[in-house]
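A common beginner's mistake is to predict each chain separately and then try to dock the pieces by hand. The better habit, illustrated here, is to supply every component at once so that their relative placement is modeled jointly.
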Amino acid sequence: METSPTTGTDTPRRLRAPEHPVDPRAVRWWVLRALCTTGLVAVVLGVGYWLWVPARPWLVVPLVLAVLWTVVKVVVEPRVRLAVHRWETTDEAVYGLTGWIVQEWRVAPLSRVQTVDAVRGPLEQLLGLSTLRVTTASSSGAISIVGLDKEVAAEVAERLTVITEKIPGDAT
Amino acid sequence: MSEPETVQVDSTPAAAHDDTPWERLHHRMIWVDVAQTVLSLAPSVVAVLVFGAEASWSALWPLLLVGGFGVLGAVGNATRWVFTRYRITPDYVERRTGIFVRRYRSVRRDRIRSVDVTARLRHRVAGLRVVLVGAGQQLSAGESALELDAVLRADAEALRRELLGGHRVPAAVAAGEEVEPATGTGTGSEISTASVDDEEGEVFARFRPWWVVYNMVSIWAYVMAAGLLWGAFWLTSTFGLDPAGWIEGLLDWEALGWPGTIAVALLATGALGAVGMAVNFFTTHWGFVLARVPGEKSTQLRTRQGLLTTREVNRDDRRLRGVTVSEPVLWRWMRMADTNVITTGLSVWSASQPTTILPRGPRSVALPVSAAVLDADPDPFGEPLRRHPAGALRRRLWWATATSAAVTAALWWCATNGVAPHSAAWWGGGLWLLALLGALVAYRALGHTISGDHLVVRSGLTSRATTALRRDAVSTIALRQSILQRRLGLKTVSAMTAAGWGTYEAPDIEADEALAFAVAAAPGLLEPFLVPDGARAPST
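With all components supplied together, the output reads:
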């Protein structure tokens, strides 16, 4: 591990993307999520604009922005995310690639993992999806892999739990 | 925080079978409470009898409030003494307290991470000390796992040694002098930079009165001055004096005009605040010593300080992960620096700031002391940092411009709607210049490198923070790239750890170098996911 960032390594290497894509049904989940958040804001602003005439000059700009943002979140974001999001687990680490405007490659060693959960929110239950959440002792070091098939997520969570239990230490 | 729960708060004793006798807190607390009652009531009595103030609520309410709180506190404290018992068993520290709600709390001794000994003035007058047992808990902010308020000074010392050292020193032995036990001295530890003496261990830094300069200049000086002036105004008014008239008579305010008056007022309050800050510095940091002292299981990083209220904090060296030296931007020219350790189990949010290992002082002291505390070779703070590419500056300039433009547009919109004056749009221009300057300052703060076992990152606009973090403490590593960053060929590297702020970032490193830095920052973690450049792989 004596390779300093100044010299780099002999052959230029790069980080490959994780192996597995997420479930295509995740697109629907991202669309629904966008409709429930920014879509709701746009609707509330629209109703306000419609009912409250004196406030119209003030509401027009936020309303237009909210509608545009909702369209982007519904049409663009889910497709970009589906193309970007990937994940992989090995016997040593969890590796996730997430994001659309800001992409993030995140790797956590299983030796530092504290909890492994398969979390299912109401929308995910509707679509048969699940989120794999792997937390470490660092308050900000958690890895969330969204949009997995619920069977896959449960199986991976179980496998990771078995592996982490075998590793001694208090994971700090 | 996902720190495992280490404190049990139940009603059933964990070691009920143990027949170790329960002990009381020291009875001298009662006398302290009686004295506090008398002292709290004294100002009101003096105001009435000596100064002939009217004995009514409207005239005396500040003094009566002070007196009331003092008496209530004393009575509450005495009651607490009556109902509190504690004991140290081989495995647990246990405490029972409370009148109506009986509370039992036990802390397993192998979970104890710190034992702090503090004392307020009233404790010191009576020769008592408060013992705070910390177990790395993240319950509510700043709460100790267990607090013993108060025991005799010698007992506190003995308790500290026993809980951290694993063996009980008879109080009688410790009573005479504050001598560290000869057993368990850090044998074999290499001590090169600092002086060593038996009493205090390896001393890294001692109180220097001239550090007061660094603690006088702060925006808080005005807050402090405001508080002092308000207090003085109330006090003098209560005793029948006329502070407003006195100030009016000091200078010919009419001749000064408004600007002059404001300037004089700012200077005077600033000066008063600075004096207040200086007094505060001397009272809190008097006798400051930072030292590494031996313990049974590992060495401890210990700070002792305080003139009236003494405070001692012991930090387990096994939990030390790094050090942060931060320099506030406004005082960069006088090379002012704050020094904090990155340790698991000590909250950075705690009001008592247990992570601070040096008073605010000069950089020239903070850096060598940090290096000595880390005890690393090569010195992480001595290493020259790698600059970040021009793209990082361009990104900051872009953001400064975009933010200023958005604010200007909003101001202009408000102006056209008649809410703000038409000059408002010009403020946007001023903001832009300020933002560009900020972008330049923030860019110049950037730096990163790998130094031996540590990674070093530096960033921050309002406070330039240089952090040296142990590479083996990095739990999660993340690379981040926004669309703008991709256009500029940049990536941000975040090293996450279970200590301190949790995340330490090196923003906007050139993309290839970012990967190399990330690979080096978390040894072995990223290697399995690296492929030779040019090989088949989905887009990264």
